[in-house]
UniProtKB/TrEMBL annotation:
One GO cellular component, as annotated: cytosol
Gene field: thyA
Catalytic reactions of this protein: dUMP + (6R)-5,10-methylene-5,6,7,8-tetrahydrofolate = 7,8-dihydrofolate + dTMP
Alphabetical UniProt keywords: Cytoplasm, Methyltransferase, Nucleotide biosynthesis, Transferase
Protein name (database record): Thymidylate synthase
Short name of one Pfam family: Thymidylat_synt
Subcellular locations according to the entry: Cytoplasm
Species of provenance: Melghiribacillus thermohalophilus
Lineage: Bacteria, Bacillati, Bacillota, Bacilli, Bacillales
Catalytic residues of the enzyme: 200, 200 (nucleophile)
Residues that hold (6R)-5,10-methylene-5,6,7,8-tetrahydrofolate according to the record: 223, 317
Biological processes, Gene Ontology terms: dTMP biosynthetic process; dTTP biosynthetic process; methylation
């Protein structure tokens, strides 16, 4: 059994057994614990969960979107990635530019009302098509504000300049690998009000020892069933990419979560996943000809030996 995957399954069990029932912003309701840590040995294999299929290409394209400093969903849509659609869609349907049917609380209503869900899917299709085809529309409604890519690559200073945190931390790893300041933060209090979704994964720190690069993420809030599997794989991929550029091996990914929660409408799905036996982890391949993380494209990344159980569907809380 994969020790890495068992770390995640232990989190699921712990929250089901010990969590507190809480209301939340989405009005879905959660079972939640505060403060939990998992450790993944990246030498054991790439921690893409096998107890359900997790789409690697979506994880990789989202991470490359962050790395490029992009904040507009058009890049994601071009790579058939729809995981940020709801937040941009919400911006559109709440604007004066929208004149279609009422989409208030579309996240909940689409789960409860089949006729509404059909209309929601129709409007979402109209929205994404316009994002891809209409430059002005994409610029106005596709941008999510100063979310991860902006904070990582273009942190705004009080003097009006910008800081490329990701580039700076990579250069520091190369020249001062034992620094205790290898930190990138996405939580900028001034920008939080303008973001479509304030950063859930707020800060990450690197650590070099024995020729290996490790990464610890502090995540203020984590959707255990849908979000956390993505976050585990995404930051493990980021660690691999930076280790690849800096000539290091990979060490551990340490995942520290503040509010770790299972949505009330995900409980059955979590129990299904817990009933499945983990399988061997896959292997990550990075094109050896690409040396800089900023030059990596989706085709430069692949996984081998991934044989997961089937996917388990669950609604997204917006």
């Amino acid at each position: 059994m994969s020790k890495s995957e068992q770390e995640y399954l232990n989190l699921c069990s712990h929250v089901l057994e010990n969590g507190h029932k809480k209301e939340d912003r989405t009005r879905t309701g959660t079972i939640s614990v505060f403060g939990y840590q998992m450790r993944f040995d990246l030498q054991e294999g790439f921690p893409l969960l096998t107890t359900k299929r997790v789409p690697f290409k979506l994880i990789a394209s989202e991470l490359l979107w962050f790395i490029k400093g992009d904040t507009n969903i058009r890049y994601l849509l071009k790579h058939n990635n729809h995981i940020w659609n709801e937040w941009a869609f919400k911006k559109w349907v709440e604007s004066d530019g929208y004149n279609g049917p009422d989409m208030t609380d579309f996240g909940l209503r689409s789960q409860e009302d089949e006729s509404f869900n059909r209309e929601y899917e129709k409007q979402m299709g109209i929205f994404t098509k316009r994002i891809l085809e209409d430059d002005a529309f994409a610029e106005k409604y596709g941008d999510l504000g100063n979310v991860y890519g902006s904070q990582w690559r273009n942190w705004k200073t009080s003097s009006g300049e910008t800081i490329d945190q990701l580039k700076d931390v990579i250069e520091t790893i190369k020249h001062h690998p034992y620094s205790r300041r290898l930190i990138v933060t996405a939580w900028n209090p001034e920008d939080v009000p303008s973001m479509a979704l304030p950063p859930c994964h707020t800060l990450f720190q690197f650590y070099v020892a024995d020729g290996k690069l490790s990464c610890q993420l502090y995540q203020r809030s984590g959707d255990i069933f849908l979000g956390i599997p993505f976050n585990i794989a995404s930051y493990s991929l980021l660690t691999h990419l930076i280790a690849h550029e800096t000539g290091l091996e990979v060490g551990e990914f340490v995942h520290t979560i503040g509010d770790a929660h299972i949505y009330s409408n995900h409980v059955d799905q979590v129990k299904t996943q817990l009933s499945r036996a983990p399988r061997p982890l896959p292997t990550l391949n990075i094109n050896p000809d690409v040396r800089s993380i900023f030059d990596v494209e989706l085709d430069d990344l692949s996984i081998e030996g991934y044989d997961p159980h089937p996917a388990i569907k669950a609604p997204v809380a917006v």
